[in-house]
Amino acid sequence: MTSQLESQRRFFEDKLQFVEDVTYEKLEELEKSNKLLKEHAHQLQTTLDTITKDKLQQEKRSSIKITKLQHDFDEERLMNEQLRQNQNYFQVEMQKLKEEFDSAMKNKNQVKNHSSK
User: Fold this and answer.
1) Would 102 be classed as within a structural domain?
2) What are the strands, taking DSSP E only, across the chain?
């Protein structure tokens, strides 16, 4: 009976040792996996930080370029408006000069016709 009890004790101790060994191996695997995941997460965070920084720099550069382009566009628009105004002014002045010229020529012809009679 003692031998049977001793045999059962060894059997259960072996089983317990097996469970402990398997549990230890699984725990080591999980710790390794956790370490790798943490390293990967750190790398991803570093990449994200770099990309975010680059994005902010690009947005700042873009904003500066947009502001400059808007300023240039506003200047061009103002210049075009002024050119249109000048064009209208000179067209009116040309028309006045043409009318004055036509009137002077008419008067000259009238004076010429009057003096030849």
Assistant:
1) no
2) none
DSSP state of 108: H
113 CB-contact burial (10 Å; exposed 0-12 / middle 13-18 / buried 19+): exposed
- Quote the CA–CA distance of 15 and 22 in Å, as a whole number: 11
Structural domain contains residue 112: no
Residue 49 belongs to a domain: yes
| Burial of 19 from C-beta contacts in 10 A (0-12 / 13-18 / 19+) | exposed
- Per-residue pLDDT tens for 60-98? 999 999 999 999 999 999 999 999 999 999 999 999 999
In a domain, 100, yes or no: no
Tally of domains in the chain:
1
Integer Cα distance of 8 and 32 in angstroms: 36
Reported as half-sphere exposure (CB side, CA atoms, 13 A), residue 64 has a value of 5
User: Rounded CA gap, 20 and 27, in Å?
Assistant: 10
- What is the pTM (predicted TM-score) of this model? 0.54
How far is Cα 6 from Cα 12, in angstroms, rounded to an integer? 10
